[in-house]
From TrEMBL:
Keywords: ATP-binding, Nucleotide-binding. The lineage of its organism: Bacteria, Bacillati, Actinomycetota, Actinomycetes, Propionibacteriales. Gene3D superfamilies: P-loop containing nucleotide triphosphate hydrolases (3.40.50.300). PANTHER family: HELICASE MJ1565-RELATED. It comes from the Bacteria. It holds the Pfam family DUF87. Residues 20-342 form the AAA+ ATPase domain. The keyword Mitochondrion does not apply. One of its GO terms (molecular function) is ATP binding. SMART domains: AAA (SM00382). This is ATP-binding protein. InterPro entries: AAA+_ATPase, HerA-like, HerA_central, P-loop_NTPase.
Amino acid sequence: MGTWTCGDVTVPARLRSQGFGRHTFLCGQSGSGKTYALGVILEQVLIGTGLRMVILDPNADFVGLGDVRDEASADQSAKLRGLDVRVLGADATGATPLRLRFTAMPRAAQAAVLRLDPIRDRDEYNAYLNIEVRSGDTDIVDVVRRLREGDDAARALAKRIENLGLGSWEVWAGDLPSASEVVGSGARVTVADLSGFMDPHEPVAVALDLIEQLWLQRGSRTPTLIVVDEAHNLCPAVPQGPIQTLLVERLIQIAAEGRKYGLWLFLSSQRPSKIHPQVLSQCDNLVLMRMNSPGDVAELTEMFGFAPPALLATSPSFTQGEALVAGTFAARPSIVRMGQRLTQEGGRDVAVPGV
């Protein structure tokens, strides 16, 4: 993943592949090289393990994982080019469409999308529970059609769906494969580019569907690394709205129980205090880059007791690309410098133009 230097001696820095059988947290403030470092680690995980990978990518930073750089060695290039990498995104991105299938979602997830409460909206909720979804129905448009054929409560629910504008969401799969179906088809890497949607609820709904389907299929025990970039947005300490609330609840469950099913989280964020503590506290691996906030460093020191406080305290002095690695995937806590990316970056910073 990079190099470790002691005096005049520089040696390769390596992580234990089996260590990714625990949840991991990567943290660094803006400008520390956090996103670049995450890409470096993910590339090495793909080369050195057989893990399936699902990446929730809110800023299109990892859409180039299938595009190998010329600087990669012949062996690295062959391994990376041989991977089945699927990049899915909103229509505006030009990628393969990122979709979800409403009729395949669990009932609780469907209710969250419809913003239905079983007590407050009891009549509409009951109509929703009793709707007959037929084999030919694929998405929300078909559901609305069925509701219009029903009683007053069913027709009221149809109006709710129309008023929420759900019919205009581009995220519905229709005749296209959903993101969870792409994952299930055998893709080694599925990058869900969550940028580019008009309605801010759409990317959260897709993320929820992916996480729900992975959890529903946990009995297959397929080793899977679930990468959540900008985790403070998808797994916040204080979730907003029913879709995000259900997403956070499921991530909490995976954090607590996912290891025995081969579901491992890799969270990345510049705002550790904004991530739900019941998820963050389950992480047994830490990659810490530059963090200037004394409050954040103090919180990380308390949260990650396996990382030496003296090393954590040096984080504000790290240069770009330096990181403290500690936990089950590191032989010992060490400060390392990240190596070069082997695939294309999707989200470099914009430079200030000259005159």
